[in-house]
Amino acid sequence: MSSVEEFRTAIRDWLRSQLTGEFAALKGLGGPGREHEAFAERLAWERHMAAHGWTCVGWPKEYGGRGASIEEQLAFHEEYALADAPARVNHIGEQLLGPALIDHGTEEQKARFLPPIRAVEELWCQGYSEPDAGSDLAAVRTRAVRDGDEWVVHGQKIWTSLAHESQWCFVLARTEPRAEPRTEPRAESRTPGSRPHAGLSYLLVPLDQPGVDIRPIVQLTGTSEFNEVFFDGARTAATHVVGAPGDGWRIAMATLGYERGVSTLGQQVGFRRELEALIVLARANGAAADPLIRDRLVRAWTGLRTLRAHARTGTEPSLAKLSWSHWHRDLGELAMDVRGAAATLAAGEPYELDAWQRLFLFSRADTIYAGSSEIQRNIIAERVLGLPKEPRA
Q1: pTM over 0.85
Q2: Which of 50, 57, 184, 390 could form a disulfide with 68 if both were Cys (CB 3.0 to 4.6 A apart)?
């Protein structure tokens, strides 16, 4: 038996033995548009996983992980989904910040922050986007000023997933004035200080303190997973900057690479289950008899195989993100067409949605969050294909 199969058998057997009793009721709960479901109970479940060594499986062993390979991580996510285990609550800490600290943090930062992430004792959110700086992340206006042994943070972040459930936020903030791009000399000859993204820092900021105001945003699904976060004199230790001050852009881009790459392995399995359920529905209600619907279902099936290949081979993160986000958005639209007129009716008052309606509404955000499709295409064109950069004003 290969190491991957041994790993798969181990997590399968553990899930079968543990998703019982009080945890059995959590099966199938949570996920995009449904993060409000049994959050405290899912948190307890994930801490139970941590106690048995089943969180952070891809982390190196020296930091509390299992050092699992990509194939083993994929097996983990597949078995987790097949067991109908509840959606994870610690994704941002485990899959985004943790790898960033392992690769770029100081030994003191690793010792302070990695153990609570692995044990699911501290939850994290991501403070990147702002009202006027979403796709143009280099334009962030949140600023931080050094005051003795602390950074003082002022500004606003938006679309901050699960901030209302988190204890910490990694914040991209400007710690040096922004230098406007020059028109002369040519861009290739600019000094580092002339780059718009120079002077940004990657700060680790506690949320439970004066000067932090978190306001949930009501979404199309009627739920509130996203938030606005206002910083008005919030403070964090001077040592809580990852990388050097002013080097935050590099760390932020590395974090986005984790978000668009390995961290999506679990999504692939969820996508497969959604597609399989939609095919069953299409056969049951007769929609599969329509040749156009049938053709779209086949295209979705083949597209899913492509996504799986991306996950296995470590495809360039921007290409992977562009692919899965459009595939999933299209699946939501296909689900509405399979359901027909019934898709337009709420399941109950005042605004009770079924799983297909939640899929359709929430997947509208897939092509926007974690880097919009327009930005991903620019990255692929400029950094992968080597095409000329888009003209800047």
Answers
A1: no
A2: 57
